[in-house]
Amino acid sequence: MTGLQVAGVGAGYGGEPVVRDVSFGVEHGRLLAVVGASGSGKSTLLRAIAGFIPVSSVIIRIGDRLVTGPGVAISPEHRSVGIVTQDGSLFPHLTVARNVGFGLPRRTLSDGTPTADRVRELLSMVGLSDVGSRFPHELSGGQQQRVALARALAPNPEAVLLDEPFSALDAGLRSELGHEVRQVLRDARTTAMLVTHDQDEALSLADHVALLVDGRIAQQGSPRDLYERPANLAVASFLGEVNVLPVLALEPDGDPRTALGVIPVSAPVSAAKEVVVRPEQVVLTRVPAAPSLGGQPPAGNDTRGRVAAIVYFGHDSIVDVELADRVIVRARVLGDSGLAVGDEVRVSVCGHGQPL
Amino acid sequence: MGTSTSRRPPLPLLAAAVAAVVVMALPLVYLVIRVVDSGESAWSALWRPRTAETIATSLLLVVLVAVGVLILAVPTAWLLSRTDLPFRRVLIVLVALPLAVPSYVAAYAWIALLPGMSGVLAAALVMSLSTFPYVSIPLMAALRGLDPGLEESARSLGLGRAAVARRVVLPLMWPAAGAGLLLAALYTLAEFGTVSIFRVDAFTRVIYASYRASFDRTAAAVLAVLLVLLALALVAAEARVRGRASRWRTGSGAPRPAAPIHVRGRVRAAGLVWMSCVIGLSLALPVASIIGQLVLSRRRAFDPEAFLGALAGSVSASTLGAAVALILAIPLGVLAARYTGRLVRSLEAGAFAGHGLPGVVIGLALVFLTLMLLPAAYQTLATLAFAYAVLFAPKAVGATRAAVGAAPPELESVARSLGRGPLGAWWQTTGRLAWPGIAAGGLLVLLTAMKELPATLMLRPTGFETLATRLWSRTEVEAFGAAAPYALALIVLAALPAWLMSRWLGSPGSSGRRSQAPRTLDRGDAAADGAWKGAAMHQVKAGPS
């Protein structure tokens, strides 16, 4: 069943369209992340779906209902979408409970349940059972966002649109709240679209990721698809650090040969100029004779280099290795690398590379 | 940029601030003593039917003005802040300008045009037209600063446009509008000239009449105390409403601006007609009437010598008053900007409570005070200047506070660490940065004092004339042509701060939010800017006159 479907948006404020041509769909109950740099048009896209900006030649379906299309433009209040904005946009003059119940009938719901019961249920769902009588300004930023989510979910919308909902929060709180929100949305079986510029957030929370560049979708698919099989260098480098290795020659079985030796690729290629390898795929072994770091290197490769720089982050370290022909390869090593600048290391690659 | 240092304020500064508040409170305290002392006669004056009639008349006037202000301000603010009505930038400046026409000058202009005008409805009309910017300006700022995310969230939760207006926009606009409405009420209560011209027996006119009939000064004192209590209640209510508005602010405070509503066709035409009516009645009509009087009188009634004498009187008394006001205000402003604590807050609140005190009350109190304690000072320039200082020092306190607050206190620490003593460090950093703002506060006091009417009438030396007293005496004898030059001069003087204020309010992106950082790069300018912001809301209007 379709949760949300968009085809061909030309949305913008007045002049040039900010979102040009975008098509995607997400199944009911799933979370779609639209990720892109600031100015890529992702917030405009969200506001077009919510019905706040007019769009041209587009079809938008929410649930099984056409809300925007030729001759159809349902107003925002009849779309059955909840929105959660960057800073929550809680109504400052209402208590938390009144905020959550804002989209509900005053006293009783259509099924006869008292509104107050539903509000209590929603507040406990987001883990804020005891703040109902407070005012928004008395809550922390993270609590405000949870209330905003509860408020958006209250009328049981077909879909919830989240516009950078965690970007105003501290880094630690951000990922914790992200997973809580994910769980709440899953429990509520609500289709959701999360707009974010944070690739970690998109990869870790979403079922389906669409990367937006200049108002166009550069690639969409599962987080794994995008990270491991990026369509181009822009996608690859937006989602994480990359080593781009020129292809020197092709082996008979189709695997390319690079400065790091032969790198297996998932599908044989006939012509590729470059191979992309993530730093965590690069395995370093000290020479001579030291236990390898991060797994056994495949036999047969004997590329060597010298450690040029090390940046220590605690949970991992970034090690830059200079190969014989001045090529620099970056490796990510768990914890402390045990290496020092100037050490000679054997460099190999674990897993598949992505040819471009 | 309120700086909270945990340090205790230096004793000399604290002592100066306490002394300033005591001096400012002295006339009122004496007035109360005088009433309590009169005992039985004050008691019987309180229960006279005249007292109840006066209260009823004043309250009726206040209610009528409040209704008029809302009718004028709400559509105006909405049109100018949320729609794409043409000529918006010009219109925004024009609707702030009625603040530049002192109410009694507007009243003179109306009665010169329609000599039969009188009564509470006439007074309410003129007061509404000259005080509606107190509501429309903050309302415009609030509407512009309203996070569109709130309205969008409400729409997404299933509310139509009308329901969003009723359940989200109106409740959020109420504090801004309510605070402005209370200010308009305060000035209406304190206004002397307008109610006298239209012969409305409100507090100020009755107090002045009782004082002139010198056998009944106890009754005047009783009414004055009642008036002060009402005014203080309004000031307290205004501070409460304003405080609630600032508490409601959540989020990062930098919402994107709302997209303006496109008005076309008949709605646009209606909007432009409405704006023309508002500006026509509040601004064009008074100015045209005065110019008409000037043209009609053809210099017959114009006496240049008297005019220059009145101008000199205004300038000398007001300059002296501004100087005294600054002496009182600077310690208070510096204290409020740099230190916290209960004593500091209550001193500041005490000084602020004096804003909007009716001139007729301070005039009466100083008449009593000088006659009892220092008869030699009765009706002297010094007493008049002191009255101006007491009436308008709160404006200078606000300006000083804003100017000093805008200068980063870290600079003082840096200067100290580079070898300056405490006073030298203050003078070379904070003092250097804040003085334009403080001076602007002084100028504001000067310009406001030039428009003051009732205290001037009561305290001026015999034969001493100001622009305001000349306008008053010419209007009293219905010599409208002779009054016109004074009216014009008063408008020009009053237009100066209003012009500066509208420049601030009309600047793009400035929505009047306090959190907004000054856009200027130079810190000295920023301090001056801060002073005008602090000054802008309460302080530009002619004080009670």
Give the SSE layout.
The complex is a heterodimer of chains A (356) and B (545).
Chain A: E1 2-7, E2 10-11, E3 23-27, E4 31-35, H1 42-50, E5 55-56, E6 59-62, E7 65-69, E8 72-73, E9 81-84, H2 96-100, H3 115-125, H4 141-153, E10 159-163, H5 171-188, E11 191-196, H6 199-205, E12 208-213, E13 216-221, H7 223-228, H8 233-238, E14 243-246, E15 249-250, E16 256-258, E17 261-262, E18 274-277, E19 282-286, E20 303-312, E21 316-323, E22 328-334, E23 344-349, E24 354-355
Parallel strand pairs in A: 4-11, 4-12, 9-10, 10-11
Antiparallel strand pairs in A: 1-3, 1-6, 2-5, 6-7, 7-8, 12-13, 14-18, 15-16, 16-17, 18-24, 19-23, 20-21, 20-23, 21-22
Chain B: H1 11-38, H2 40-46, H3 49-82, H4 88-96, H5 103-113, H6 120-131, H7 133-145, H8 148-156, H9 161-190, H10 193-197, H11 203-212, H12 217-247, H13 265-297, H14 304-338, H15 342-353, H16 359-373, H17 381-406, H18 410-417, H19 422-449, H20 454-459, H21 467-476, H22 480-506, H23 523-539
Which keywords apply here?
heterodimer, A: 356 residues, alpha+beta, Rossmann fold, OB fold (Dihydrolipoamide Acetyltransferase, E2P), 2 domains, six-stranded mixed sheet, five-stranded antiparallel sheet, 8 helices, 31% strand, elongated, B: 545 residues, mainly alpha, MetI-like fold, disordered C terminus
Task: Explain how this protein is built.
The complex is a heterodimer of chains A (356) and B (545). Chain A has helices at 42-50, 96-100, 115-125, 141-153, 171-188, 199-205, 223-228, 233-238, and strands at residues 2-7, 10-11, 23-27, 31-35, 55-56, 59-62, 65-69, 72-73, 81-84, 159-163, 191-196, 208-213, 216-221, 243-246, 249-250, 256-258, 261-262, 274-277, 282-286, 303-312, 316-323, 328-334, 344-349, 354-355. Chain A is of the alpha+beta class and 356 residues long. In chain A, a hairpin with a 2-residue loop joins strand 16 and strand 17. The two termini of chain A are 34 Å apart. In chain B, helix 3 crosses helix 13. Chain B has a single domain, classed as MetI-like fold. Chain B has 545 residues and is an all-alpha fold.
